[in-house]
Amino acid sequence: MKITALTALLFLLLVQPAQTQNIYRTACQGNQERLDSLLQNTNINTQDNRGRSLLHWAVACGKPAIFEHLVAQGIQTDVRDEDGATPLYMAVRFQQEALYDRLVGLLETATWKSRDAGMLYEKAVLNNDLDFVQKLQESGLSVNATNERGSTPLEIALRLQNDSIANWLKANGANTQLVRQITAKGPYMGQRPPTDARKVFAPNFISTEEYEFGSVFNKAGDEFYYGVDTGHGNEIRFSQLVQGEWTAPKTILAHPKYGYNDPFLSQDEQRLYFISNQAMDGQGAAKDIDIWYVERQDDGWSMPINAGPMINSDKEEYYISFTNSGTLFFSTDKGQSHHDIYYSEFVNGTYQQPVKLSEAINTEHYEADVFVDPNEAYLIFCAQRPEGMGRGDLYISFKQEDGSWSPSVNMGATINTQGHELCPFVTHDGKYLLYTSNQDIYWAPTSLFLELAPRKR
Predict the structure, then answer these.
(1) CATH superfamily of this structure's domain 187-450
(2) Would 315 disulfide with which of 33, 94, 132, 334, CB 3.0-4.6 Å?
(3) If you write DSSP's letter for every residue of 145-199 in order, what string do you get?
(4) Cα separation of 370 and 347, whole Å?
(5) The model scores a pTM over 0.85
(6) For residue range 84-126, what is the model confidence (pLDDT) as tens digits?
(7) What three-state secondary structure class fits 97?
(8) Around 93, how many Cα atoms within 13 Å sit in the side-chain half-sphere?
(9) 323 and 344 in contact (C-beta within 8 Å)?
(10) Secondary structure class of 290 (helix, strand, coil)
């Protein structure tokens, strides 16, 4: 899939505060005259709130004239953003081959070849871009380089079942002995449970080079569902504990036109709920995001079923979780410019009119991705608030004796980071919080946050 300049612009602007977008947007748009005007009062090596320089932006948006203009004025060519990505990485990520070649010629030393090879190959393989994989090898980068997870390009290609890239790598020196065989056995996929800090969940088995989110175990702990952003769309995958070993994750919901993510099981586990932009007839153009579900059948799952107009609207509905009584918690931006959290009671087999939660939960800012404890002892959700630690933090509120929710509080640095935390889920035994952070699934003991409950008087 060729990544367009519009895709790059949307990606780069997604997490930028509006007041900081101006000069970077100008570089991305290719407006040299306005860029020069803005640079009169701004250092050319300015970086946005994620550490990206103007050169990052010019490369990602495919603006060679702006690129050359910045280089002529002495901009640094090897600046790293907060994720360790350089403009060279942006060239690979957004498939800018000519700018990649130009950057290679500008780099003064060859240290980048060993330092960045694993990261560059990773992105080329994730992009399913054999041409760029070949270009990296032609640039002198070892096909056996490893990324920060210890994965070689061949291991990533095999995990993604990308036969064309895997076969090319094997034919061009990739060492098959370096490919690890990752297995998962026993409860929680054989992971040693976290005790006093968060940690990545099932690295290189569930949490991989792709973007994983929205995970859920069933009550027995022998089924695991999660969402994956493949870079080309969102899909839902599944793994099952069979005779003590977890099966290799397989895709159970995917579509070339629609996305499926944020899975959550109903209380009787006979329905798998999720969100999707699928057209109502399953054939038309993608629409706004709704809540859907599939029903468990003897041979798998039914076709997707829309949750209906009592829950869904012509706006976006996000994430799903349930109380023991069947009350559905979710978020929507209907009737306003931001998402808030609602609940809908399940009475006589029918969802009732959704009710918006109080100001203890909802504010004028974004609140979504709500997990409610089945016993309604607490709820956890993602919010984007000015006082937050990062681009989105997890907050928690506790049910009080009078039935109201306590004012929500940030879950703190043991859970949140400067990045984006979202998609919370607590295991049925109440011991562990699973959530998405840094494009992986993490888990942490609930003891880290249950102490945030207001003290009873």
Answers:
(1) TolB, C-terminal domain (2.120.10.30)
(2) 334
(3) ---TTS--HHHHHHHTT-HHHHHHHHHTT--GGG------BSGGGGPPPPSSS-E
(4) 21
(5) yes
(6) 999 999 999 999 999 999 999 999 888 999 999 999 999 999 9
(7) helix
(8) 20
(9) no
(10) strand
